[in-house]
Amino acid sequence: MKIFYAFAPFLRVLNVIFYLAAFLFSGLSSMAQSHAEIRNVDFTVRNDTMFVNYDLLKAGRNEQFVISLTIQTSSGKILYPQALTGDVGMNIIGGKGKQIFWSINRDNIFINEEISAKITIESSIIQSKFVHRGIAVLLSAVVPGLGITKLNNGGPYWIMAIAFYGCAAGSYLFYRFAETDYNKYLASMDTQERNKFYNNVQTQNTISDVLMYTAGAVWLGNMIWTLIEPNKTNPGKKGISFGGSYDPVAKTPVFSLKVKF
Description:
- The protein has two domains: 117 residues; 88 residues, Immunoglobulin-like (Sandwich), CATH 2.60.40.
- The chain is rod-shaped.
- Helix 4 packs antiparallel against helix 5.
- The longest helix has 38 residues.
- Strands 3, 4, 6, 8 and 9 form a five-stranded antiparallel sheet that branches. Strands 1-2-7-5 form a four-stranded antiparallel sheet, with no helix packed on it. Strands 10-11 form a two-stranded antiparallel sheet.
- The chain is an alpha+beta fold.
- Helices cover 41% and strands 29% of the residues.
């Protein structure tokens, strides 16, 4: 007769995973807070173009922000410039020496009084989609497939968690069934009834083992997959990129070619 101790190590593994989940998600919650701030704002106006300089400090390495510019006149009127280029709008990263260009004529605005410029980080701070491999591994350890989903910027890979936890729960359930029938087997004095309980225990133990090993295989396969899956969110990917922008001073387009090794 099989002794009911085989499931105990698996229960300990599940406990470790649950503790890891609590630690990981509490850590991710603290990481979501941003301490970024706007400093050293100044501006000049030349040839109907306003040049606004600022620093975006204390930003996280993987944070991106929505930056907006408003103009206030000495009479209290608030202007919302639209003809803006430079470090303004969405997906702005932290750093010093940021600059915004405002083409006043293009907005058909006439200003004949003193003005002040205000740069703000809007309430919706956008966290970049970059996911570190280590974070993905931890996510997959807690929720199988979730780390793979993060590395791919989406996808239903987290469905593996349903298979893992479903098999783990089923294994534990049949383990308890077998334990109950085993106790009945020990307590019964009827030979036919004992044989029935004995057969039930054997079947339930087999199902429990199969489900337990299946859960382990799903979890292990998920971890290996997470380790070898290409990180599609990696901003440091090697290669050649071509971009362009507009220089409002020279009034000409500027093109750039970047090569990352």
